[in-house]
Amino acid sequence: KEEMNEKNLQFFGVSEIKKTDDGLQLLRYPEKVVDGLGVPEKDENGGWTKTYTNHTYSARVCIGIEIRCLYDGNEMRVTLQGSKPITVMVFAGDYQIGYYKLNAGKNTFKAIRNANSFGVKESSCNRYPMNLWRIVPESDEPVTLCDVETDGEYTKPEEHQKPCMLVYGSSISQGCGTP
C-alpha cells in the first residue's frame, strides 16, 4: 500500500498548485492571472466606471487537466474534493477504464483496470503506455486532490512526459472573432 506522494504524480494542464489543508488544489491558470482579467466599462463620455470580471468564471473551471502516474497495478483509490459536482474519467494508457460522477464535497472512488486492458501489446498503444494512469476531473470550480492510494508501488516516474511551457495570449493571438 502506497500513500500519495506528490513526487510520484504529474499534473498536466495545471499551471498552479495551491496546498490546502485537504490536499492540492489544481488550477488551470494562476490566480494572479485570473484576478487580473477584466474589461473596463465606460460611461457615455468614455470615462472608466468599473471593471467587468464576470467572464473570469470560465478561467476558474476545472477542464482540461490530468493527474498522471505510472503504476503497474490494477486498482487505485482517489479522493477528490470540490464545491461543485465533479465528473472523472480514468484512463490506463489510451484506454478509458472508468467514468465517475461525484457529488460536491469530498469523495473517494476506486478505479479498477478492466479485463479488456490486460494483455494490450505495446504496439497497440497510440500515445501512452498502459501503465500510465490518467485521472481527468471536470468541474465548474477548481478541484482539490486529497489522496491517491495504490496497492503497489509507482514505477519509474522519470518516464513521464517532459513538462511543457504554458503560454498565455489574448483573443487576438488566438484568432477569435476574425473573419
Kindly describe this structure:
The protein is mainly beta. 8% of the residues lie in helices and 40% in strands. The chain contains 3 helices and 12 strands. The protein has helices at residues 31-36, 57-60, 171-174, and strands spanning 10-12, 16-19, 24-27, 39-42, 48-52, 66-70, 75-82, 86-92, 95-102, 105-112, 132-139, 143-150. The strands form 3 sheets. A 5-stranded antiparallel sheet has the order 1-6-11-8-9, with no helix packed on it. It has a 5-stranded antiparallel sheet with strand order 2-3-12-7-10, with no helix packed on it. A two-stranded antiparallel sheet has the order 4-5. The longest helix has 6 residues, at 31-36. Mean pLDDT is 80; it is low at 175-179.
